[in-house]
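Input record (one chain):
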Amino acid sequence: MKKFFFAFSVLFLMMSCGSSRSFQHFFDAHKTDIGVTAFQVPNFMKSILSKISPKEGMFNNLTDFKFITFNSMTAQNQMNLINEMNIVASHKYTDMFRKNTVENTKIISVKELGNIVTEAIVFDSKLEKTTIFFIKGQFDPEKIKAFSDDNAFEDFSRKLQQEYQLNINTKLNPSFNPNN
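The corresponding structure, as predicted from the sequence alone:
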């Protein structure tokens, strides 16, 4: 009976801890934090992503997109986010790019199916701002690698926030997507 209880306890612990390693769990845990801007791109905005992506055709096969930015962080908050992202990225992801400096930590972690990227987490953390986005679909690895360029990532993040605000302010009909 003790062996059964021990085995059941270990199994329960593994199952409950496993879900905390997903990006969805990370996103849900932080989207309501003070100083955070977070959104999940609905279907009607997926066509906008293709206009602002650093590589043409990058988001043609997109099924999910989440974006979260942390502003006005302390060094401790930044370190906590880096540690949390390391835990998420270590769970079935492969680091495609990683750059750790005192000023900046940049991680591009992917899940692959053959030579196609099926999920990617792009994480860029500086003390003044940490930006993360998650994409799911089918992507060319070379196009995903374009985000390792600081200017491409910053430009995309800025354009994405501007487009999102523009479309929220113009009150587009969420059920209308000309690409569906």
